[in-house]
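Good morning C.,

I know you're traveling, so I'll keep this short. The sequence:
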Amino acid sequence: MVEQHTPRSLIVTFYGAYGRAFEGPVPVSALVRLLGAAGVDAPSVRSSVSRLKRRGFLLPARAADGSAAYGLSDEARQLLEDGDRRIYGSPRLSDEWLVAVFSVPEQERSKRHLLRSRLAGLGFGAVAPGVWIAPARLAEETAHTLERLRLTAYVELFRGGHLGFAPTAEAVARWWDLAALAKQHEEFLDRHEPVLRALQSGPDPTPEEAYRGYLLALDSWRRLPYADPGLPRELLPSDWPGDRSAAVFAELNARLRDTGARFVDA
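The tokens, ready to paste straight into the viewer:
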């Protein structure tokens, strides 16, 4: 997982962490101040906001004082709400799986590529061409994504148990690249576990320090629960680093988020 705190990514992360708590749309002046604290200059904020507007994530509006502002589209709110369950929730583990079976006509192969990329982005593993699998708890979010992208005509969803013939742990190791997922967890730990140790042994951070540290940690972490969909622990290697990375993020969240909110509200 290469660290890429791009302006656009940080703006999405900001709206997910703090932007929804604003009364009304977020003024552009506030975005410039708050992203500036994370090292993003004003021109980059404005150009990234424009790109997010073109994508339909942000909608132009006016703040209470009449200044330019941006609010979330309905689709963006749904996306962030789905993300909350991934980023902050504990996976509800079960033995059931969600299976997506799809077929896209050759003349619409661009939709086939989009479908594959979005299923991979949701954390699905590939069983066979046109057959992808994920933990069953992702059914609602998967349905939201397919509906938002107007891809439901090409997909059938099923849920059930794995009946064989290989042991499920062996099958999971084929369906997902567990080594690549473990590496992403280890890279998160390499960057953010030292930050947590410094917080545990040092003075309390200022609101601005907490805000900046939390925004960067969340921007790194929020991709991991999508790459790693929360597979049952008994199906993973004994030295799986995902437990530790989740614990590190949970403590960073507990130590920094509320203190950082004081800087946002200043």
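Safe travels,
E.
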